[in-house]
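Memo subject: From amino acid sequence to discrete backbone structure tokens
Keywords: amino acid chain, backbone geometry, structure tokens, three-dimensional fold.
Body of memo: The sequence and its backbone structure tokens, given next.
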Amino acid sequence: MRAAEAKADREQGDREEAEVRVGFTVTRKVGNAVARNRAKRRLRAAAAEIFAEHGRAGTDYVVIGRAGTLTRPYDALRRDLEQAIVKVERHGGSGGPRDGKRRPAKGTARKEASQ
């Protein structure tokens, strides 16, 4: 009986890994709890539509709500989220440079070279 339970647990774990998981965070700078929850609800609704089509299975995403999340038109919010996902996937899904090194700010290299 224990072997069957262990196998079922492993299969459940495999199915969970194949799902797209999305986390949401909204800082207190956005507003009080009511405003933050409203922002998260808007992001969740947009994410439910967008990640079903564009999300990569087995990938975890974190969506950060900003103050504009509350006032931005819903269609624009969806477009922003879709563009962000496409951009992340285009860059390998790491959220940063592929070599793991931070790139200098734009124009920094030229300023240092001219000094």
Observations:
- The chain has a mean pLDDT of 80.
- The domain at 25-114 is CATH 3.30.230 (Ribosomal Protein S5; domain 2).
- Helices lie at 2-17, 33-54, 74-90, 108-114.
